[in-house]
Amino acid sequence: MRKLILPVAASLLLVSCSDDEPIRNEEPTDRVFPQWYYSGGELGTAFLTTSNALEQPSPAVEEAGLYQSFKNGEAIFEKPFMSNASGVRSGLGPVYIRTSCMHCHPGYSHGKRVEAGAFKTDQIGNGCLLVVYNPQTEGYVSWLAGMPQSHAVAPFSAPVDENKIQVKWLAQTDDWGNRFPDGETYELQYPEVTMPSDAIYVVRQGYQLPEAYEVKLESTIGIYGTGLLDAIDDADLLAQYRQEEADGLLPNGLNPAFFADGQWTSQYSNSLQGDGTPYPRRFTYALSRGPLQDAAGANAIWNITNVTRSDRRYHYLDGAGTWAAYSAKDPAVQAGFDDYLATVDPGRNHPEWWNGDIETRILAYLNSRNLDVEMTDDEYTDLMVWHRGLAVPAVRDIDNPDVARGKEIFEEIGCAYCHRPSWKTGADNVRDPARFFAGNELPRYPYQTIWPYTDMVQHKLHMTNDIRTGWCRTTPLWGRGLHQRVTGSATADRLHDCRARTTMEAVMWHGVSPRSDARYSVERFRQLSKADRDAVITFLDAI
Question: Which residues contact 19 (CB under 8 A, 6 or more apart)?
C-alpha cells in the first residue's frame, strides 16, 4: 500500500485537530494489516480517525492532481446557498428543501435521528426527508415534489409547512419480547409522522386533494466512498443479481420491478439531458439512480436548493404543476412578484416574465425551461470531483481480537450474504447518463478490492412502518461506526429512518418480522453467547 501524501496546507490542518486519538491520514508502516483493513482499497482508503474521518480526499484525487478541485467542491457542499441573485453561492429558491448539502449530511455522514415534536430542518443535522405517498399505490403523490420543499423565498409560500408536521416515536415489541435467551434486553422504536392537510399550501389555497396520503421519514445516506461503488463493473452487478436469483435463499426474492429471469426488467436512463442509454441501478434506497455522475448527489445539488446549472435550467417543482398554478393565483404572491422579479431578472432579459397579466407572468417564470444559470460548469465539476473523490476510512480498532472474531461470526450466521463484504472494481470507465462529463476530469478507481459490506441489491425486512414499497437497497456498512464521532449525535442513528439508536437495535430490527429476508440470521444471532453478540457489534462499529 502506498502512503497518502497530503499537500502541506492540508497536513497543517490535520495537525491542528484536537481529538484524543492519533491524527494520521497516511498508511501506518510499522506492521502488515489484513486486506479487509483497507476498506477502500489502495486508491480509496484514508486513515484519519478523528471527527474529520469521513471528509478526506482519496489517494486517487492526489494522484490525478485534483486536490484543489476537490477542495473547491468541498466548499460548495459545506457552505449555504443564498437567495440573492448574484454573488457566491447565490440562486436559492424560490422554494427549497435545505440551504446546504451539509444540513442533510452532518460530518459527511448520514442524517441524524429526528427528535419527537415538530419536523425542523433549519439546523444542520436533520437529514431526514419527507416521503409523501399514496398508501394504495405506494407511489409518490403528484401534487408535491418527490422531495417536498418546506422553505420558500418571499413572496412565495413553501409547499408544506413543516411547523405543522409532527414526529412521534412508538415502542415496538418483537416476537421474543425484546429479550435474548440469556436475559439481556433491548428496546426498539419506530417513527410515526403526521401531516395535517392544512400543512399543504395548495390545500389552504382551495385545492381538493385527489387521493389519500401518508408520510414517512427517509434519512440521507453516507456519501463517502460512492465513487468506489460507482467503479463496480456493470457485469459484476448483473452477476450478483443472477447468483442471488439462482440461490433462491431469501424468502422475498428479488424486486421484479428491476430484475427477473436473469435479466434487468428496468434500468436507469436519462433522456432529458442524455441520450437514454440504460444503466443498472445502484444508488439510493429505492435504486432510483444509476451511475454516480447522474445519481443522488448530482440531483440533490439542484433540487435541494433549486440552484440551476447549464444542464438544468428549470425549477424543481411538483410534476403536476399544482404549486405553480396556485402560487400564480395567490394575491400575496402577485403583490410581491415584481419586487422579487427585479432581483432575479434586473436586466429584464426575459420579457415573458414582465409582460401580460400577472398570473400568466408568474406561471411563465415558475415553469420556465430557460432560467439563468446560477452554478457554473466549473463549480459543478468541482463538486463532482469532491463527491467522487471522498475516501473511505480504514477499519478501526484492528488489534482488538473481538473485531476479527465478530467478522468471523458475522459471516457464519449469514449476514454477509446481503452485506457482501468485498468487491473488485472494474476498469472504471466513468459513465454519465446526463452527458455532462467526459470522465477524465474525475478521479477513478480501477481494479481495487474494496470492502463496503453490501450486495447492491434490494431486500425486504418487513419492519413496522417500513420504508416506502418495503424494498430497500442493502446499506453499505463501511464507516457507519464513525457516525456519532463525526456528527456529535447521541445515538447511532442506523437504518433508513434512523430508528435504531444502537447497532444492536439495528441488528434486531432486521428480524422483527418472520417474513424478513434477514430473519434466519437474526435467529442465529439470538442464540449466540453475549460475548459473541458483543463481538459482532464491535466488528460492525469498527468497519
Answer: 49, 50, 51
